[in-house]
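Why run this: before we spend reagent on co-expression, it is cheaper to look at a predicted model of the complex and decide which construct boundaries make sense. The entries below are exactly what would go into the expression plan.
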Amino acid sequence: LAGSATQMAASPVSWSDKALRLLRGLNSFYLPGSSRAQCCPFVVSGQQVGWVPPVVVQELARFSEVFQTQGGSVELSPSLGSYAERSAAVDTVLRCLREENRFRCLRGWREEKYEVMARCCDQPLLAMERSATSLFGVKRYGVHVNGFTRQADGQLTMWVARRSLSKPTYPGLLDNMVAGGVACRTTIAETLVKECMEEACIPECIAKLARPVSTVSYTYEDDEGVFPESQFVFDLEVPHDFAPEIGDGEVQAFYLWPMDKVKEVLVSAEFKPNSAMVVLDFLLRHSYLHPDTEPYYQELVVGLHRPL
Amino acid sequence: LAGSATQMAASPVSWSDKALRLLRGLNSFYLPGSSRAQCCPFVVSGQQVGWVPPVVVQELARFSEVFQTQGGSVELSPSLGSYAERSAAVDTVLRCLREENRFRCLRGWREEKYEVMARCCDQPLLAMERSATSLFGVKRYGVHVNGFTRQADGQLTMWVARRSLSKPTYPGLLDNMVAGGVACRTTIAETLVKECMEEACIPECIAKLARPVSTVSYTYEDDEGVFPESQFVFDLEVPHDFAPEIGDGEVQAFYLWPMDKVKEVLVSAEFKPNSAMVVLDFLLRHSYLHPDTEPYYQELVVGLHRPL
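The model came back. Tokens follow.
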């Protein structure tokens, strides 16, 4: 028994276990013990568009002309009949909460709006400041780009970015070549071209070679709220004599790494977790994992695509 | 108002709506109104490995030396301590139920065993006759192959099979080039090579070009029970001068179709539903859908990968 305990302590955690753990972390909202049972549905115009944690419900109850917090849900007042009215009323409340310094996430106020709707394809019901979306658990959408190149021998290598130390989130961590949120009134294709240029100086003629291949979808929670997110995944094969360059300063360096190294590093604490999912999706689609040798093959695929 | 009602009645159902409906049908076990709340967990050696519908629980209660049906679950007797003992005991019960003609699905008895385990990578707990698995809602795994070829102009065309009229399930419907269940003591790679040869006369040297790219995972129910299934998806690019041929008679014809035609037909009643999912996964991975123009892009990806 002592022997087996020693063995267990010594046995290194496998790549597969680390990959599964990564996906569990990003789907923490669905794990037993999460705040999910305590969260209230956030309802706008009869549709659930998010989840509000209890501590936020308490604060919103003070603004009864905007939020109705009785009956186990947080409902935006039906008297706010239009997109513009809803957006303005919520904005007023959020600026007040920010002024009162009620929530840490509002210190990261960006003056950047995200659309709120039940499904990405629905007509938006209102626009909400980006830094506040986790207080309401509203879905956020982004674009992530796997940048890769094909060597003369056919082997793929991947461009990996290292985030600037001045980024408010995940400073210094590894990331996809390009990634960004889909803001109000912007298409996914526009977001892709804009972020390619801003973050990595990739000209439009190359950015347009990016091909849509998947989404990764997941919901996690932390002390700043609930994060249901879906990233539209693109593969962008860049010419082998092309290199991304530091653009707006969100990235401090780009590395061109063989897939073995990328596979190893994606399960390390060095990689931004949701971006690591995008790389994992790439590994699966490009046959770097085989179901006879990857024990959690099915679980990994499913863990990348949870309903929001 | 009369005008808008007329308009609604006349508006054709879009491809996107049909695709979403396809995925809903294959995940019917998770829809409101399904039998899920009435099903009992099927527990073997302390682990849930399936879902037993109420009508099956009733029958199993007669075999109390094999199944313990108290307390809201169906538990295989812990006195059956080994894989061999469990397999034999369950087989005896199933042959009895078959003789008594209790369940229609057992008329399709195949003398083909599937492994039962909580996860595909776990050590199997017992083996169960294939035609009985839906009575216990045990997970089934299969291999599906997207066979395609690249024309001189770079366009892809896909090989689609038409199932034989003598098949017990989905006779005459369209299907993937090759597909088959993963039986006991067979690897996924072995299943792939075997089915390629048997169903489509594809020699091993070509079958081995198949690349693992994904899974599709879903759970549906019908009057024969509960079907949690996961298919390991492979893409197989065959040379453009190669054509699959009818093998063991499970297929009556092979067609080589442009992707536009394949896309259209996959949402029709002509396509075997779970095989249509495999084609949909191909369309997504090969950029035949774009998130700016496919309104349910995120929902389609998620619907292909539900946890079992």
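Confidence is low (pLDDT under 50) at residues 1-7 of chain B. Chain B has two domains: 15-32+140-304, 36-135. Bring this page to Monday's planning discussion.
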